[in-house]
Amino acid sequence: MDSLWHMHNFDLYSILCPTKINNYFKNNGLMFKKGEVIYFPEDEEQKIYLVSKGKVKLCKYNQDGEEIVKLILSKGEIFGEKILLGQQKRDEYAIAEGDNTALCLLSIEKMRNLMRDNEQFGLYIYKLIGLRIKKIERRLEILVCKDADERLIEFIKDIFDDEFSDGNTVKHHYSQNDISKLIGTSRETVSKLMSKYKKLDILDYTRSSITLKNKTNLLQMLDTE
């Protein structure tokens, strides 16, 4: 667990987007307005991105034109990293979700050099890719198999698991609108469910943190659904 904590606390932002270096962002950065597409499926550009400001959503559209959001990323998180596994073309949309979203751009050659020169950093990146793939697969399965109540509980559970948290409170960057997109329901439904959990004295939700008051009862709700 100590090694997991150490890897989890890698500061990707300072490594991949060193803003203290003069003109770094000017030469290696991109700006997007909310709703602008960063890349499309089938794009072949061999670049990796890191969120410097704002948010980015990774999504697909099904045959009915409905948006399926895979991930919502904030400052310090990378995306487009599957090219490190040999991916030749993008398989998703990357769209700016926050106003004035700023991204740092990194070539695959530079990333591989960083990973080669720092074995622990390279291990972290590959572990991140593997965990992210599993997380997306699980989320898509949950979208198909569970109702909104179950999906929200699974989402909350995942946040605590992602943070390797043994405590009762975790920090997060998800608005209720973000959560609704990730679990495939409306913002109003998320708001009602969060209010229900609060009345049951199970959790407290704010824009920046979630506190579990009774984790056992939360998981029991999932088991009995």
Automatic annotation (TrEMBL):
InterPro entries given in the database record: cNMP-bd_dom, cNMP-bd_dom_sf, Env_Response_Regulators, HTH_CRP, RmlC-like_jellyroll, WH_DNA-bd_sf
Name recorded for this polypeptide: Crp/Fnr family transcriptional regulator
Entry's Gene Ontology cellular component terms: cytosol
Keyword Transcription regulation part of the UniProt annotation: yes
Gene3D superfamilies, A to Z: Jelly Rolls
Alphabetized SUPFAM superfamilies for the sequence: cAMP-binding domain-like, Winged helix' DNA-binding domain
Keyword Ribosomal protein among UniProt keywords: no
Keywords linked to the UniProt accession: DNA-binding, Transcription, Transcription regulation
UniProt-recorded Gene Ontology molecular function terms: DNA binding; DNA-binding transcription factor activity
Coiled-coil annotated spans: none
HTH crp-type domain location: 146-216
Cyclic nucleotide-binding domain location: 32-115
A Pfam family the protein falls into: cNMP_binding
